[in-house]
Amino acid sequence: MTHADKTRGEKASRFLREVEQGRYLGVVSTFTVEEYVGAMKEILAGKIQGTPSPNAVMQIRANIDNLVDSLGLELADSDLLLVGGFGKPDIVKAASQVIDQSEVYHKPTCKWIGVGAADALTTVLAQRSGSQFLATLDDGFRGVKSAVQPFMIEDSY
């Protein structure tokens, strides 16, 4: 683990403590939970040098469910946000607008980073859930220019 990774982890931990203490009202979508599960499967696969077992995936899901509960986060059903009671089946069109309106960010130690489809979809879901900010460590969100603004944990802590 690099110093930068450790620093980002410490900042994320401080942010989550403030969510837990009630400074922020946290909302997480079921889509974001799936993004987490997918990312954790990749990390675990790298550690075990193979595909995680179904039991390991169930444990990943239990861990994120417990975290959501322990932090008192609201879990927003992405399917309902997509087309349910909101009557807004235009999710791809809305995500396309987020991408079109976004800027590309250049990280000095990295390459140019743009808002991709998954980040745009996450932004639309956050907007439809009534969020004003989207807390993240993902630099891909830095270029988002929409009603929901990125809250870059790394910059704020």
Written as H for each helix and E for each strand, in order along the chain, the element string is HEHHEHHEEHEEH
Helix fraction by DSSP (H/I, runs of at least 4): 55-70%
**Sequence of strands across the biggest β-sheet:** 1-2
Q: What is the CATH class name?
A: Alpha Beta
Number of helices: 7
Low-confidence stretches: none
Strand content: 5-15%
Which CATH architecture?
3-Layer(aba) Sandwich
Class from helix and strand fractions: mainly alpha
Q: Determine the mean pLDDT.
A: 86
Describe what this molecule looks like in 3D.
- Helix 2 crosses helix 3 (about 55-70) and helix 5 crosses helix 6 (about 115-130).
- It is built from seven helices and six strands.
- The strands form three sheets. It has a two-stranded parallel ribbon. A two-stranded antiparallel ribbon has the order 3-4. It has a two-stranded parallel sheet with strand order 5-6.
- Strand 3 (about 105) and strand 4 form a beta hairpin.
- It has helices at about 5-20, 30-50, 55-70, 80, 90-100, 115-130, 155, and strands at about 25-30, 75, 105, 110-115, 135, 150.
- It has a single domain (about 5-155), classed as Rossmann fold (3-Layer(aba) Sandwich), CATH 3.40.50.
- Helix content is about 55%, strand content about 10%.
In short:
This protein has 157 residues and is mainly alpha-helical.
